[in-house]
Amino acid sequence: MLLAINSSNQYCFANLANREESYRCPACKESVVLRHGQQNVAHFAHQVQASCHSFTEGETIDHLLGKMALYRSFAKDYQVVVEPVLGQISQRPDLLVKRPQGPDLAIEYQCSPIGRKRLQERNQGLKSLGLEVLWVLGPAYYQRRLSGELICRFLYCGRLFFYVPKQKRFDTRFNFSKTDFHKLHYQNQIGFPAILSSLANGAEDDHDKPLGMRSASQPVLYQTKLVNPTSNLAQHLLYQRTKLTLLMVQGRVNIDMINYLYERGQRLDQIPDWCLLGQVFGLAVPNWYFRLVLVLLLEKVGLNHWIFEKSLSARLRQYFYPSFQEPEKIVKATYTDLAVSGVICLQDNKILVIKLLQFVAD
């Protein structure tokens, strides 16, 4: 821990502590010792480790350095509490930033792996106190190729935050998109204290505004169709269909879907072009699969028939990562794309099917 209580009952940072003085843990009030060698970052440690459940002992140097770097970034302009004791939930986030507007911001600097269940428990505990939670990831995460599911766990306002202590590098990734059979794409920005400061300042957040109405600082989490104007559409579609054929040969496609199409006299590599143009991020299935399911559901609704948008959306939520927080926005944007294509009409939270997308003939 970086902070302890001295004999005068005042908080003291480890790098400013006096070895001759005695210190106590702010959470359990038991004695702690100052550790500060040539190879170690100054910190306090419990003399009896098991007596306190509010701390994780054995913090790495990276974690201590990252925590201090984040503190210095915020403390210039905002009131920041380091390792605040939250007795109601027996938790202690790394930092608590007091925001002049809106809820306070709890910041966790995560260097080691953490399971989804434990992450959810920590998030739920902090949010139960009315706090927002922002996770900043350490070097172990920065050096990995992160899966879409793992990214969704740590997203905050559509951004993924990193700090690498040895390089003193702040980094943020945003505008994630995923074209089928291609690597995950995102934009990268070096240095994010200014972004975090705007969040800490409680600036008006237009995160809930519809797509296209966000400010320039707000990232778009997804794209609903192929957006690269330099790409050759015919080549793209041919490439996608070739990949689908390969998946079928390798047996890597849901057999129920294959059989369903076969009974209709159709093949997977004949699906409508529209199904092959998605770039949605946040899906636990490929874009083509999500779009194909939607096309088939609309066929079941039937031409010139209505369906409640809420009912259709409920069928589609299962195809997103459990940790992803914006499935409704993606589904809504996909409906809008279909409406622009003349396939459906949106009216009063209902959908009218006005055209059926055709499978490609041999």
TrEMBL record:
Organism: Fructobacillus evanidus
Name this polypeptide is given: Contains predicted nuclease domain (CoiA)
Entries under InterPro entries matching the protein: CoiA-like_N (IPR057253), CoiA_nuc (IPR010330)
Coiled coil, from the record: none
Competence protein CoiA nuclease-like domain boundaries: 59-147
Segments forming domain Competence protein CoiA-like N-terminal: 18-54
Signal sequence extent: none
Source lineage: Bacteria, Bacillati, Bacillota, Bacilli, Lactobacillales
